[in-house]
Design goal:
alpha/beta, Rossmann fold, 2 domains, seven-stranded parallel beta sheet, six-stranded parallel beta sheet, 20 helices, globular, binds 2-acetamido-2-deoxy-beta-D-glucopyranose, EC 2.4.1.-, zeatin O-beta-D-xylosyltransferase activity, Glyco_transf_N
Length: 480
């Protein structure tokens, strides 16, 4: 039987990244890589993927260092990774002081997950144990390479005191966001062209002061890095990578998408979403998920439910609240849906309240659209799988990611303008945008562009493709 996931990804599955492009003498077991992720799902996940990629394709030892709680969470939620690859990673658990893990405030107008603040504060205590770990490992290796989140810059600062260690920031946001922020901080003008500049969403309202303070606190240590790695591809953000190079002096590598290249070997084939998708026509299903950091109010959930129903389009809706600081604590909120909603939409839609295998859903040939908060992970996954996006950004870099998707790449539609972020998005707005994306000529044209871009992005991770070349070049650099 033809496998819908494999079919969509035949390119990917044949393109297992390997080190055959690298001269052998550059592979050196004495180079050790230490990954230090920021303690939130969207960040844990990316460095775990990078760990698997580097360890399996280049045969280098990789340590994944974090709190026991979050290391466990990363493992539990490892979508689409090969268990054999995960088994090669050395997980190093560090105890974290106890921290409060309150539920998200689902009525807050600002969607930023501020309830994680106690966790961020606790995470600062990782500095000492990580320094001890790095000292120990540096005494036993020729070189230690620390790859960390920019929000962990304070914690890994002791790299600078070790003669044989160097660090690289793995950027978890789009390069367009990074570039715009750097311009703002350094007082340079953003080179975007007048028309686009007018449409660029303002930074205003994207980050609460608490977060800005946390970032300011980290920023003195960010310059310790020897370079940056970006989870993007020249095919997606070539223009912005070039612009970034004008304002950033350290070396840059665009190695994304860091996709598990072997979706044909997934462990969750029997997942209810994938089984349901197997029964739907090609490109007919809208996938809806707002990530792990957004919680909707009851009113917003009601409007979305009504809008979906009125659109008469097929859908899979992942209905979850934002993670707590420790995602394993507390009871999940039971969202109210219109009466007998799930039963009434049974033929057209599926509501899922558990962790969903997002990359596999997006890779499935029945999926034809993604309503998304435009977190960078979700954008990259959707772009790579050739799925157009109904953009509904919530906070942080998401408004700019949405702008990239709709205005620059033109592979999506806007659900709600950033300026109207404090207004309720009503059912009729949702119905309209869903119909336009899933059942209109304009939607088909957008879908076609998405598929073409996805194809090009997947090619960039194959032998000779730009992302593969950049990754090889990064590995050659650190193993020099
Ligand atoms: C990097 O890209 C992949 C898609 O290839 C995605 O699955 C992963 O979560 C991304 N990480 C980040 C933060 O960009
Ligand atoms: C898939 O995984 C199994 C073990 O989990 C392994 O034996 C097999 O070789 C893998 N296949 C591919 C194509 O990687
Ligand atoms: C829904 O919202 C849109 C945009 O804000 C508005 O134009 C429209 O009148 C609203 N419709 C209803 C039925 O409230």
């Amino acid at each position: 039987m033809e496998d819908p996931i494999e079919t969509r990804n035949s390119n990917l599955s044949t393109s297992m990244r390997s080190y055959e492009n690298l001269p052998n003498h550059q592979l050196d077991d004495e180079v050790v890589i230490v990954m230090v992720p920021f303690l939130a799902q969207g960040h844990l996940n990316q460095l775990l993927q990078l760990s698997c990629l580097i360890s399996s394709s280049y045969d280098l030892p990789v340590y994944y260092v974090g709190s026991a709680t979050h290391n466990r969470q990363a493992l539990l939620r490892a979508n689409a990774l090969n268990p054999l690859d995960i088994a090669k990673i050395h997980f190093h658990d560090i105890p974290l002081p106890e921290f409060d893990s309150p539920p998200p405030d689902f009525n807050a107008l600002n969607k930023f997950p501020l309830h994680h603040q106690p966790l961020w504060d606790a995470s600062l205590h990782l500095r000492e144990p990580i320094a001890t770990f790095l000292r120990d490992i540096s005494s036993k290796s020729r070189r230690v390479i620390v790859v960390h989140d920019s929000l962990m810059s304070y914690i890994v600062q002791d790299v600078s005191s070790l003669p044989n260690a160097e660090s690289y920031i793995f950027n978890c946001i789009s390069v367009i966001t990074l570039y715009c922020s750097l311009c703002l901080f350094s007082g340079k003008s953003i080179q975007l062209g007048e028309e686009l500049l007018k449409k660029l969403p303002p930074l205003e309202g994207a980050l609460p002061d608490e977060v800005k303070n946390f970032m300011d606190f980290q920023s003195p240590y960010m310059d310790i890095k020897s370079g940056d790695i970006h989870n993007t591809s020249k095919v997606i953000e070539g223009e912005f990578l070039d612009l970034l190079a004008q304002v950033e002096s350290k070396q840059q590598w665009a190695i994304g998408p860091i996709l598990p290249t072997k979706l044909n070997n997934i462990s969750n084939r029997n997942n209810i979403c994938l089984e349901w998708l197997n029964k739907q026509p090609p490109r007919s299903v809208l996938y809806i998920s707002f990530g792990t950091s957004t919680t909707f109010s009851d009113r917003e959930v009601m409007e979305l439910a009504m809008g979906l129903k009125q659109s008469k389009q097929k859908f899979i809706w992942v209905l979850r609240e934002a993670d707590r600081g420790d995602a394993s604590t507390g009871e999940a909120r039971r969202f109210e849906l219109p009466e007998r909603f799930e039963e009434r939409v049974k033929e057209v839609g599926l509501v899922v309240r558990e962790w969903a295998p997002q990359p596999e859903i997006l890779a499935h040939s029945s999926t034809g659209g993604f309503m998304s908060h435009c977190g960078w992970n979700s954008c990259i996954e959707s772009i790579t799988m050739g799925v157009p996006i109904a953009a509904w950004p919530m906070h942080s870099d998401q408004p700019r990611n949405g702008f990239l998707v709709t205005e620059i790449l033109k592979i999506g539609l806007t659900v709600r303008e950033w300026e109207k972020r404090e207004e309720l998005v009503n059912a009729s707005t949702i119905e309209k945008v869903v119909r336009k994306l899933m059942a209109s000529e304009e939607g088909d044209a957008i879908r076609k562009r998405s598929e073409e871009l996805g194809e090009a992005v997947r090619h960039s991770t194959e032998k000779g493709g730009s992302s593969q070349i950049e990754l090889d070049s990064f590995i050659a650099h650190i193993t020099r």
